[in-house]
Amino acid sequence: MNKDPGVVDALLVFLKVSEEAQCNPRSKCEWTWTSNSIANVTAAEVVFDSTDYEWQLKLNGSDFTGDTSSVELFISNVKQTTKTVSATEAIFTIMNVTGQSLNS
Q1: Whether pTM exceeds 0.90
Q2: Residues 35-62, buried b or exposed e (16+ Cβ, 10 A)?
Q3: What is the 3-state secondary structure (H, E, C) of 10-56?
């Protein structure tokens, strides 16, 4: 699903995140691509790092870009710490999450 920068497409909002969407469904919702490469996530795993004593989310895949200063993950509107980013893996430290389940 790679697109050239500047291409405009329709924006789809799934019900799970619809309350955060800023798009009125009765109007034309558009998205402008800013990159021609989108990361392909093939696996996600929450693990406990016994060295640093912290929970981490590990994403594996391909075409990851950026570094720890430009890749962000938010859980329940809380920014998580980006630990490492490579072309095939991104690791985030999970912090300040009040619930026991990350899928709600």
Answers
A1: no
A2: eeeebeeeeeeeeeeeeeeebbbbbbee
A3: ECCCCHHHHHHCCCCCCCCCEEECCCCCCCEEEEEEEEEECCCCEEE
Residue 90, Cβ density class (10 Å: 0-12 exposed, 13-18 middle, ≥19 buried): buried
Long-range CB contacts for residues 67-75, cutoff 8 Å, separation at least 24: 75/102
Say whether pLDDT at 40 is over 70. Answer: yes
Q: What is the number of alpha carbons within 13 Å of residue 85 lying toward its C-beta? A: 15
- Could you tell me the residue ranges of all domains in the chain? 1-37, 39-97
